[in-house]
Write a structure and sequence with these properties.
The complex is a heterodimer of chains A (117) and B (114). By secondary structure, chain A is an all-beta fold. Chain A is 0% helix and 52% strand. Classes of the chains: A mainly beta (117), B mainly beta (114).
Chain lengths: 117, 114
Amino acid sequence: GAVVSQHPSWVICKSGTSVKIECRSLDFQATTMFWYRQFPKQSLMLMATSNEGSKATYEQGVEKDKFLINHASLTLSTLTVTSAHPEDSSFYICSANRGLERDTEAFFGQGTRLTVV
Amino acid sequence: AQSVSQHNHHVILSEAASLELGCNYSYGGTVNLFWYVQYPGQHLQLLLKYFSGDPLVKGIKGFEAEFIKSKFSFNLRKPSVQWSDTAEYFCAVRPKAAGNKLTFGGGTRVLVKP
């Protein structure tokens, strides 16, 4: 099946610093990727839709200046958590759909566990 | 906004027992429905999906789910579980009007005792 890879798998950073998480579709092109956040023992919450060549679309309540998304190519989207604080500690997951936009399944990355100390 | 509700947060059962996980959603329009599984330390994997046609969908690893439109439900079943089915299970809904955006349920942690 299609593979979506995230890097890094885990990261620990100091409060106030920025962290970049990469999401790559390894064997297909994705004009759209999605970023989710998963708090402990909770479900995945969609943060934003990453669009290749244009601005990301953020869900209500998600700070676009806090979570910068760049979809530089058809196989790479990055999420940068700027000026991270302990409350940003979470599990971040990306997904991408293979093929046509509709009626396709999403493939998920393995997630990135961010801990801000 | 649509929501997805999974009735059980935790389920503990023994091997060979039958499993049924409930999923209900609130959205009046046409939807695609999914069940994903997340094994410990691994990424989300698709178990099965419903787009149209036969409301009884068979997936991988012996799982099946039934879409009941009148009840807005998409319950997951497996007749006989194995220890390796220990995982977290997520129901997800994708309204056709929402592109590829998925809304997930809260997840159900399933522990199968050997």
